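Dear H.,

Thanks for agreeing to be a second pair of eyes. The structure we're designing against is below in token form, covering all 164 positions.
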């Protein structure tokens, strides 16, 4: 005796959380070597500064876009050796995700996915600009996200309560 066939759930019935990568891409990339070619004659090791930001937005009910922007600035004294800015982005499928989980998804999970790609873009771009590669060290996006939450909570508590 055969088992009765069950109909596949319709999209309205399927409420399981879904998360996946739709597309990863370089949204913006710039490199500047303002003192070339003279800067290549310098023998001093440049001081390298790295900054990064993340941002995310809801595209529709099932998709989010997250960007990881990394800026690498190398200087010798007051002279800029090079400046590289890479904006690695991704479109992610995020449907049936509880509202309270969307922000951590955009602040932790998605940047962790994007980071290896932006690290490669930065390294490759710096090499192509004629310099030794800059290898970005791993970033703990969860710790940064939690610190931002604590800072926002502390700022909210520090604000004087308005009487109504």
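And this is the sequence the design step returned. I haven't edited it by hand at all.
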């Amino acid at each position: 005796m055969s088992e009765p066939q069950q109909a596949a759930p319709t999209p309205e019935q399927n409420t399981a959380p879904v998360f996946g990568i739709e597309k990863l891409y370089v949204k913006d990339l710039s490199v500047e070597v303002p003192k070339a070619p003279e800067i290549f004659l310098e023998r001093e090791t440049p001081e390298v500064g790295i900054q990064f930001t993340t941002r995310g937005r809801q595209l529709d009910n099932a998709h989010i876009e997250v960007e990881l922007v990394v800026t690498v600035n190398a200087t010798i004294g007051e002279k800029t050796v090079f400046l590289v800015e890479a904006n690695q982005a991704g479109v992610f499928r995020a449907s049936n995700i509880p509202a309270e989980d969307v922000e951590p998804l955009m602040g932790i999970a998605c940047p962790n996915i994007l980071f290896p790609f932006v690290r490669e873009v930065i390294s490759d771009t710096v090499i192509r600009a004629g310099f030794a590669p800059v290898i970005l060290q791993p970033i703990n996006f969860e710790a940064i996200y939690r610190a931002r939450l604590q800072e926002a909570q502390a700022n909210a508590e520090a604000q004087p309560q308005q009487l109504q």
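Two observations from my side: The chain has two helices and four strands. The helical segments are 99-128, 141-158.

Warmly,
E.
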